[in-house]
Write a structure and sequence with these properties.
The complex is a heterodimer of chains A (about 240) and B (about 250). Chain A is an alpha/beta fold. Chain A is built from 5 helices and 12 strands. Chain A is globular, with a radius of gyration of 18 Å. Chain B is built from 9 helices and 12 strands. The chains are: A alpha/beta (about 240), B alpha/beta (about 250).
Chain lengths: ~240, ~250
């Protein structure tokens, strides 16, 4: 039996495009399970596919001292959702670098739940959204620190760039901490392209479109700097940016 | 080469330039001096086409072309360069990428072939070396983490790479120590002294003018040129200040 269809009343589905989700729900209801054993490493690159509605639901479990690094680009033309639940055992490390690039009427969202279960875990989430038209881009990120998960070090950095008045960015970091010796930081900004940066680039000879594209590249592309195999996501992100400029 | 006639400009509806007239013939360097708030930077921004700097009256032509009708990037392609008083930081984009795209964009609009990656890097290294700047700095994001003096020197490296025909340099000397001032001065002479070139050098101080000898010196006060002369005028201002000069 498939899981019940979500509603907007559930916090983690609050901004979802449920209408777009309905027809494909059955094939995505069950999340994919990934396990990284003690001391092992995983690096994944998640690229968009050629579908109007794209869902990726993953449950990632990290053993003692395991490390995982996820690079993801969310760029669905109608509805894209990257949903990731991560559990970290003692000394595990999780890093996520992800972007929502949305145009038109699309909804793209990244929803994470990072559970620090053992002590000494470290998590880093860096999320960038670039949105034009009436696109919606969301990040809902929950960090849970269990009792006993002392010396947890968790960080969320979320920035969104709105290119048109009608675009919307939602950002909701959420912390649930049951240990007393932890570091949990989060920062979020929503902005527009900087007029002075644009003028500076144009004064050097870039036409307005190229100047905008260049600034957006600067905003997004350093997400992939640490990827071992980052070529495909660089190309995909550059393509996506060119379409939203 | 650059001809400005009775230029009036406003910023946020406030009049800043109140009838500037100025002619810089090809092959000459003209300096503009003036107290704070006299309109020097506004003049520089108006010439480069910064949005929000509105011309209400007057004209500016560059080699006979109506400068004010052109977009900022078209002015750059035509050969105009603005050295910023406060160079802008662009995180995430390396100086090399920024300048290579800028230069090639200019070359495309002039119908010239683009420079290959290798040729560009060679040119960039060469120019950095001439301005005694570590070429490794060009791999860093544009102006991010640069000191005030490094930013100004990097502006001159940009000028060397883009090789404009006319440069408006807005207080390029501020923030420079004595050695850097000499290096920048030599850079301006090397890049911009030539028969088909011209410079409008905006400065507060006479010191840079000892390195880059201007052909003419103008004093801008309350949005108007109040006096013009040779380098002796700059020396006089250094001694007497602007208040007396106006008298």
């Amino acid at each position: 039996m498939t899981a019940p269809f979500p509603t907007h009343k559930q916090e983690e589905w609050r901004y979802a495009d449920l209408e777009a989700l309905q027809p494909v729900w059955e094939q995505f209801a069950e999340p994919i399970v990934l396990t990284v054993g003690a001391g092992e490493k995983l690096e994944e690159v998640w690229l968009p596919v050629a579908e109007d509605v794209q869902l990726r639901r993953v449950r990632l479990s990290l053993g003692d001292g395991a490390r995982a690094r996820i690079f993801a680009l969310n760029n669905a033309p109608v509805y894209g959702r990257i949903e990731l639940e991560v559990s970290l055992a003692e000394g595990a490390e999780f890093e996520m670098f992800a972007a929502n690039i949305g145009s038109g009427l699309s909804t793209n969202e990244i929803v994470t739940n990072v559970k620090h279960l053992g002590p000494g875990g470290r998590s880093r989430q860096t999320i960038r959204s670039v949105l034009n038209g009436k696109a919606v881009g969301s990040y809902l990120g929950k960090v849970e620190v269990a009792r006993g998960a002392q010396q947890t070090d968790a960080e969320q950095s979320v920035k969104a760039m709105l290119l048109d008045r009608g675009a919307t960015a939602n950002c909701k970091p959420e912390l649930e901490i049951f240990a007393d010796d932890v570091k949990c930081a989060h920062g979020a900004t929503v902005g527009e392209l900087d007029a002075m940066q644009l003028f500076y680039a144009e004064s050097r000879g870039l036409d307005p479109m190229s100047a905008r594209a260049l600034l957006l590249e600067g905003f997004v592309m350093d997400l992939w700097d640490s990827a071992k195999d980052g070529d495909a996501i660089c190309i995909a992100a550059r393509d996506a940016l060119r379409k939203v400029v | 080469m650059l001809r400005i006639e009775n230029l009036h400009a406003t910023v946020a509806d406030k009049p800043i330039l109140n009838g500037v007239s100025l002619h810089v013939p090809a092959g000459e360097v003209h300096a503009i001096m003036g107290p704070n708030g006299s309109g020097k930077s506004t003049l520089a921004y108006v010439l480069a086409g910064r949005p929000g700097y509105d011309v209400s009256e007057g004209a500016a032509t560059f080699d006979g072309r109506d400068l004010l009708a052109m977009e900022p990037h078209e002015r750059a392609a035509a050969g105009l360069f603005l050295g910023f008083q406060y160079p802008v930081e662009i995180p995430g984009i390396s100086y090399l990428q920024f300048l290579r795209e800028s230069l090639n964009s200019q070359r495309r609009s002039r119908g010239e072939p683009e420079l290959s990656g290798g040729d560009f890097i060679k040119l960039a290294r060469e120019q950095a070396k001439l301005l005694e700047m570590d070429a490794e700095m060009l791999k860093r994001p544009v102006n991010v983490g640069f000191s005030g003096g490094e930013k100004k020197r990097a502006e001159m490296v940009q000028m060397g790479i883009l090789n404009p025909r006319f440069a408006v340099l807005d207080e390029t000397d501020s923030g420079l120590d004595i050695d850097a001032l000499r290096i920048v001065g030599e850079g301006i002479n090397r890049i911009m002294r030539g028969p088909g070139k011209g410079v409008l050098l905006i400065t507060h101080y006479e010191r840079l003018l000892e390195h880059v000898r201007p052909d003419r010196v103008h004093v801008l006060q309350a949005g108007k040129i109040t006096r013009s002369g040779d380098i002796e005028l700059a020396r006089e201002l250094e001694n007497t200040g602007y208040a007396e000069a106006a008298a």
